[in-house]
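Ticket reopened. Same input as before:
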Amino acid sequence: MDSRTELLQGTLDLIVLNTLQGMGPMHGYGIARRIEQVSGDLLQMNQGTLYPALLRLQQRGWIASKWGVSENNRRARFYSITKSGQKQLANETKSWEQMVGIIGRLLRGAEGV
Amino acid sequence: MTWLRTLLARLLSMFHKEQLAHELNEEVESHLEMLVEENRRKGMSADDARNTALREFGGVTQVREKYREMSGLRFMETLSQDVRFSFRMLRRNPGFTIVVVLLLGLGIGVNTSIFSLIDAVMLRLLPVKQPQQLVMLNWISKDFPRDLLNDYEGNNTRDENTGLTINYSFSYPSFEHIRDHNQSFASTFAFAGNSDEVNVGLNGHADNATLQAVSGDFFEGMGVQAMLGRMITRSDDKESAPPVAVVSYSFWQRKLGQDAAIAGKSIVVNGSPLTIIGVAPPEFFGYQLGDSRDLWIPLSLYASQQAQLGNLNNNVPIPKDAKTWWVQISGRMKPGVTQNQVRAEMAVLFGESIQLSNGHPLPESQAPKLGITSFQQGSGNSVDKFSQPLFLLMAMVGLVLLIACANVAGLLLARATARQREIAVRLSLGAGRLRLVRQLLTESIILAMMGGTAGLLLAVWANSSLLALLSGGGKIPVGLQLHLDKPILGFTIAISILSGILFGLTPAFRATRADLLGLLKQSAATMGGPGRRFTSGKVLAGGQVALSLLLLISAGLCVRTLQKLEAVDIGFDRQNLLLFKVRPGLNGYKDTRLASFYQELHRRIQSVPGVRSVGFSQRGPIGQGMHTTTGSISGYTQPGQLVDVSAHTVGPNYFDTFGIPVVLGRPIGPQDDQAAPHVIVVNQKLVHDYFHNDNPIGHRFNFGSAAKPREYEIVGVAKDVKYGSVRRDVPPTVYFPYLQRQSILNFMTFEVRAAGDVNNLVGAIQKEAHAVDKDIPLVDIRTEIDVIDETLVLQRAFATLSTTFGVLALLLACVGLYGTMAYTVARRTNEIGIRMALGAARGTILGMVLRETLTVVASGLVIGLPLAWAATRLLQNQLFGLSAHDPFTMIAATFAIVAVTVIAGYLPARRASRVDPMVALRYE
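Engineering reply: fixed in the latest deploy. New output:
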């Protein structure tokens, strides 16, 4: 097996929201590419799994979608983050950072003992 | 709230599923093409670019599947799949489906029917506007507050545990005070505590009607609108108002020929004319279930009628009399007011009204305590009176349904075994176990719903039979309507689903618990050793035997009770005896005129050809209530000691007519009039209890006080006769001559003994009565046999119903047992064939299968007998003359079960013994 990391359960939503927040409206392919770029190909993800996640986020009202034309003139669906999505992202980011902090302290503490 | 939005989004997307799928395809395709393009840019060949793109994307089908699952409600989709599949399976086995639907239909049908009876008797609200706002006042006291009232008219109930009496009637001044000063009622109204029967004159002939007096606000407060004309209003309820009446829809239909122009016409009530002002709507029967009223009149009119009849207590008009408590008070609560607030306010007003009439407040300890009860179901104690028998009936039908469910579960188990290969294949192809359980449960619930539909149809028929049963074949008005409307439908659907789960769950789990490999290898028929796979089936069959034993024993107890009641010696010959009531007192007859009326009627009926003897009395011996009084016997009671006696007031020829032997002294005759010395006849029970069997002739009974004696000399001893009810022991009884009571009774029951069929004499007797006074009807003309039968109607209904349920249960258990054993035999054809090929005789095989059946029955009985022993105690109150553990019933029921089940078990056993070994061995 290679050294790529499996996506943590539930983090895909956070990543997608964050990407849309930072980059503005994007289509599915763009989102997938962006995630790969940022993670430096270290995240292992089937691009297809993105679509159920996008549907879920839409159903929750955190993102919205609109059909448009891609940079190379292809019909594509563009996703953008909504107001409640931004709020959700802020909350999630905060609790994620808290969690990371706690885990980090725990691990460091464990090393120290 | 996010979940709600999600649900909504999913629900909405169900309506354009096609479009969503299409859009996803387009999106995925464009994604893939972008990937391909990029790969081409990296220099791959067209094929490589496409393959790499697909790899990077991952499974397109999985995404689609996942997407579809999320975009709809998967639950709904699989449900409709399951439903369609179930119907296919059920259509493929029409025989099985029909049997199951019939079994369940029986179980659910009887439950629906009994539940609709419970609903009608105990759960229905009054058919008026917003009945839940209605409450009724009562007052609670330990002792009768003699300082406050001289006369109490109406119902009260005594709580045996606390010794407190709950009373419902108040004085009219209290009603007025409460009505005029309270803040919590939107409307305050009252009605007479007694409901009366009256003589009415219609088109020149006399008839009987039931009457209820109500205050002017009654109908407005109840929210009842006239169907024709208008209802009684406050302006009708005044002393000076013209006399008016409202008639019920049913009376208008039965007696007034549905006259659309009835308003303004007159009707003669107790000899005086009233104007009919309106007709009540069809659904309004009054405020007491099973006691519908024909006429409503204002309270003021009723009070003046009572005064005319001489029912004045304190020589003041009844509405002004604070010491006669005769009206019940109800009200409609204003919205937002609680019962506690009402109680608090009413208690204050009630206290004030007592103080106003009494002159000073009562000390806390003596003051009656005010209470509130809901009036949403009206008043009357039908709930208390029938709750126990209805609960028992519901328990019985519940057991019948349980047996039906066990039965169906057994059939499903058998079928699950037959379907095991199919299920194994599906499991091995990757179907989830829960998914399959759900599929099988869906099938069960569909079966149950079909059974429920059959049950509803059965209930329509069962309800009309039930009403016929309760009305003694239409002879007694029950005043009940059994509805099959929304609440009942809800109940039926609920028990259908519940039974579906009940009988479906175990077979579903068993069926899917298969050992895959073993099952796929085996052929269907050789699977499972003898007895192994069928333990659940046998347990179910045994359980059915146990429950049906319980029901059969209950039925036996009820039937034996009825037999004992019918065989009770009532003390006289009930054949060829006709009874009816006359009420000349209502039409103004008094004193000597009243006495001559009775004598004249007596004389005229006596002369009708075919009449052997005529008597009359205050009431008939059975089913017409009791009258009790107290007295002392000089020489036999201590000074100041009073003994209780039941009393009859009788005319001449009473003992002759009933054929009651006077064993000592003489009966009461025409010579015992006002001028003659006061005499009584007593019964043997009284002689036994109070005279220690001494000769009582010539002794004197004092029914007055020591200061104001009212003495009667005993001139005769009559044989014991039941009084009031055939269940009760004969009480010590005295017979007074009707002319020697303080006043002559307003009502009399006449008894006519005929040489032949009394029904032939009714016309002639009515003609004689008409000749005496055409405005006085003969009321409740019935034979003594019918009168006594009526007192047993509930017992008879109970016996009939419990027998029906018991037989139904036994039948179901037999079907269940037969099914289980037939199935066992079919599965073991192969084994039986081998046994026979190895030399087993037919008799041995027969014995083997029969033994197996009997083991099941015996284990059912072993469980059922202790169960019945414990459960029949609940029946104790319904029984008469035997214990709940009546050994005869227990043994007879056990024998019945063994006999019938042996037949059910014999058929499969015989089939087993007829197996041709050659055929059996080749059997798959």
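Chain B touches chain A at residues 2, 5-6, 9-10, 23-24, 26-28, 30-31, 33-35, 37, 56-60, 62-63, 66-67, 70-71 (CB under 8 Å). The longest strand of chain B covers residues 205-214. Please confirm and we'll close it.
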